[in-house]
TrEMBL record:
Gene3D superfamilies given in the database record: Ribonuclease Inhibitor
Annotated coiled-coil segments of the chain: none
Protein's name according to its UniProt entry: Leucine-rich repeat-containing N-terminal plant-type domain-containing protein
SUPFAM superfamilies: L domain-like
Organism whose genome encodes this protein: Physcomitrium patens (Spreading-leaved earth moss)
Ranges for domain Leucine-rich repeat-containing N-terminal plant-type: 43-94
Entry-linked Pfam families: LRR_1, LRR_6, LRRNT_2
Keywords: Glycoprotein, Leucine-rich repeat, Membrane, Repeat, Signal, Transmembrane, Transmembrane helix
């Protein structure tokens, strides 16, 4: 049965605050206790679900992967309030008790509209494609089909007939170009296409008007070519931007207008030129620009602004063509940075560990007198400079004994051609100990063992001496007894005569 709605479009669905209202309504207990309630669906929406079931009929173990999906059971949600008792359709979310009205004078029966608003199927082994009929479900606000490697084909353009806030299709096998939806997706909050087979140029026209977008993830696809200069300037609400593992080239995209960005990943592309300017951002936590072809000197102070951003903890610039001299860094440049990766770049010369310590750039071990555990202080937790051209390292014994920062210099000339010593073991193998202190410990153990042995021997000798003294005294007593007996015998004999 179809209920005629008062409006053709649903303006409420296009407001960002609508999501919160949806969750409240979905989680509110039924207020129809004691009532008989009819749930009325739009027939087109039910047709859309049936089209999905038909397209996915080759899904293995369909009774569990698509539990409840049935051609004969047309109602997908809350079967406990319908006359047909059957399982709910897995992954289908509905908005219920809308436009309710009583159908009898006693007010014991009412009719309510139900809208399909979400479809979430994770790791459901879906086999097939996404049919055009998905557009029939016009009130759909969330579409999450993830982890289905046999879900293939292009995305239907009819997705623009839905009201999506969340489009998450990661780790499937969708292919072709990402379709152009016009202005219909301007309220989209999350767009995750990662781990598919999408191709073509960067989807600039498709996303430029998604002004409320907070998460944009197109990683692990086959997008190619440069990113136009104004591509991201309107998407100022981005919190996470992941373009990694594609074939994008040219200069890095301009990000100056995205001040709330927290996670940036441009790794494993073919970007060239200097590092992007991140100085206007104040919420960055993680930046990964590795495996590109960025060139020039790494000037951390011009790369990000500590006064604007003191939350950046991980920076990965490895596998580029960058130069820098860590000996001239200062603590004000690093800010809150805890992990810095500069592997496989063009860094050469001498690394002065002692100077880095003196500048306060490395963490040091601080022994707590009331506990056997160590705490750490200061800046970097990891400094990785592997596979560069560092030929010499300046350090002293205290640098090895007191450093809590993990320093990685593997595949540098210093590690490849130096004789094994405490420094190479610490900085090339991350096994930090002082061999001299080990010898001292062994020497102390030997001395203690000797002292214990000598003490035990002395105790034994004293015991033997005491025993011998006691035996000698006893022998002397026996001799006196014998002498006394010999003296008394003649006297007794004479008396007998």
């Amino acid at each position: 049965m179809d209920v005629r709605l008062g409006i053709e479009k649903y303006p409420l669905v296009h407001q960002p605050c609508f999501l919160a209202a949806l969750f409240v309504l979905l989680c509110t207990p039924s207020i129809c206790d004691g009532l008989f309630t009819w749930q009325t669906y739009k027939s087109q929406q039910l047709d859309g679900l049936q089209a999905l079931l038909k397209a996915w009929k080759s899904t293995p173990k369909i009774e569990s992967n698509l539990a409840g999906w049935n051609e004969s059971q047309k109602y997908p949600c809350n079967q406990d309030v319908t006359e047909d008792i059957a399982p709910n359709w897995r992954g289908v979310q509905c908005l219920q008790y809308i436009n309710c009205f009583y159908t009898n004078k006693e007010n014991t029966t009412r009719d309510c509209s139900t809208y399909i608003i979400g479809l979430t199927l994770q790791n459901a082994s879906i086999v097939g494609s996404l049919p055009r009929d998905i557009g029939y479900i016009s009130t759909l606000t969330t579409l999450e089909l993830t982890g289905n490697p046999q879900l293939t084909g292009p995305l239907p353009v009819t997705l623009n007939e839905t009201s999506l806030y969340v489009l998450d299709l990661h780790d499937n096998a969708f292919e072709g170009e990402f379709p152009f939806f016009g202005d219909e997706y301007e309220s989209l909050l999350t767009l995750d296409l990662s781990g598919n087979k999408f191709n073509g140029s960067f989807p600039y026209l498709q996303i430029k008007n998604m002004v409320f977008l907070q998460i944009l993830n197109i990683a692990r696809n086959d997008f190619k070519g440069p990113i136009p200069e104004p591509a991201l300037e309107n998407i100022t609400q981005l919190v996470e931007l992941d373009l990694s593992s594609n074939a994008l080239n040219g200069t890095a995209p301009t990000l100056k207008t995205i001040k709330n960005l927290q996670v940036l990943d441009l790794s494993s592309n073919m970007f060239t030129g200097t590092l992007p300017d991140l100085t206007t951002m104040h919420s960055l936590r993680s930046v990964n620009l590795s495996r590109n072809a960025f060139t020039g000197a790494v000037l951390l102070s011009s790369f990000f602004n500590r006064t604007e951003n003191n939350s950046l903890s991980v920076l990965d610039l490895s596998f580029n063509q960058l130069t820098t001299d860590p000996n001239f860094w200062n603590i004000s440049e690093l800010g809150s940075l805890q992990e810095l990766y500069l592997d496989n770049n063009l860094i050469n010369g001498t690394l002065n560990i002692s100077q880095l310590h003196a500048l306060g750039l490395l963490r040091t071990k601080i022994t707590n007198s009331s506990s056997s555990t160590n705490s750490t202080s200061s800046v970097l937790r990891v400094l990785s400079l592997m596979n560069n051209n560092i030929s010499k390292v300046i350090y002293d014994v205290n640098d090895i004994a007191n450093t809590a920062t993990v320093i990685k210099l593997q595949e540098n000339p210093f590690c490849n051609f130096s004789d094994p010593n405490d420094g190479t073991r610490c900085f090339c193998e991350q096994f930090c100990s002082i061999s001299g202190s080990t010898e001292d410990s062994k020497r102390k153990i030997v001395i203690i063992a000797v002292v214990v042995s000598v003490t035990s021997l002395l105790i034994l000798l004293v015991s033997l001496a005491a025993l011998l003294y006691r035996n000698t005294k006893y022998k002397r007593y026996l001799q006196l007894q014998v002498q006394q007996t010999s003296f008394e015998l003649p006297h007794e004999t004479s008396m007998l005569i």
